Hints:
Elements lengths: L5 E6 L5 H13 L3 E6 L14 H7 L4 H6 L3 H21 L5 E6 L1 H12 L7 E5 L17 E4 L9 H20 L9 E6 L7 H11 L3 E6 L3 H11 L5 E4 L3 H8 L11 H4 L4 E3 L6 E5 L13 E3 L4 E5 L2 H16 L5 E6 L16 H14 L4 E6 L6 H16 L6
Parallel strand pairs: 1-2, 1-3, 3-4, 4-5, 6-7, 6-8, 8-9, 9-13, 13-14
Antiparallel strand pairs: 10-12, 11-12
Helix pairs in contact: 1-6, 2-4, 4-5, 7-13, 11-12
Amino acid sequence: MSGEKTIFVAGTWDTKDDELSYLSEVIRGQGGQVLSMDVSVLGDPKAPTDVSKHEVAEAAGSSIQAAIDSGDENTAMQIMGAGAARLAFDLWRAGRIHGVIVLGGTMGTDLALDLCGALPLGVPKYVVSTVAFSPLLPPERIPADVQMILWAGGLYGLNDICKASLSQAAGAVLGAARAVETPRFERPMVGMTSFGKTVLNYMVTLKPALEARGFDVAVFHATGMGGRAFESLAGAGAFAAVMDFAPQEVSNHLFGGLSAGEGRMTHAGKASVPQMVAPGCYDLVDFVGWQEMPTALQGRECHAHNRLLTAAMLEAGERRTVAREICEKLAGATGPVAFFLPTGGCNEWDRAGGELHDAEGLAAFCDEMRRAVPETVELQELPCHINDRDFCEAVLAQFDAWLAAGMISR
């Protein structure tokens, strides 16, 4: 029943009491319930909230007085962020909340990312922020399934413009809590990275083949946020195995492109998840197509994928750098790792005669992989292109071998 859904409403009630109260009223008016939490430091709400600021600070192993005595608003809000995150998780685990919405400017948004990041995939998470979609927000701090709504005209006080944002957000989080189909993980999951079928298409063959073996398959679009979601779930143990065949975000991070963070290609290894890895699109760096090309990438061959995204080719020496970086990341893995090296090319444009084919650069990458691959990583050279069926057959043979050996759990 709709009345059974309780939304956790969090914010600084000392300065945003009217706005948070309005948000709560809309949720209740739609048949939902509200559990409120105050993350203020200096002031107090007009009426007590369900979770007080003192409880929040104590959950972080601190106190409101300690936050005040720090004399630093950043330190104070980090205390409140840590406490809010812990309490949100405890309330969700106890079944007391079914979704969360946090309201704020830069301070509130900083805290909101901690709070939402503490909740697993499938728990509706909404952030109403004056800096939604801003480059201030690093991808590594944005949870995999968080929703953000720009709080237009809402820096101070209620008005018709900000009410439009707040009421939509209230309806969205309550609707999500009612409609969400929380992941049950009834079948073991394989996490895979890729791009669209025009550039990488192995998933068309691999997904049904893995499903026939009793596995579910989640394919992540490796354009920064997709890689971040993939890493987050890999680190949380959501995958029985990973097929990380589009590690371009490693190249992006090295050369100023669309990064998924420093931790890309590390979380599965730390969690001992079996990894199958290939260098899909390793030779390209994606950047925002409508912005000026990064200085380090100027003067080289590019491919405009669309108005949002442009890819720049890496030179031979840079490809060697990427190979070493990949090997260094894989060296830290505590589970089995197989690296598939398709010597015929690593994306559809990288075929002999293709618009972005660079035989010298490909040879340099392959040579560096042979030199740098850790002893703990099984290197399989494949005389084919990454989009050829031979590639998929090699991957499935390795998967089946690990499955038979009990290295991949059903």
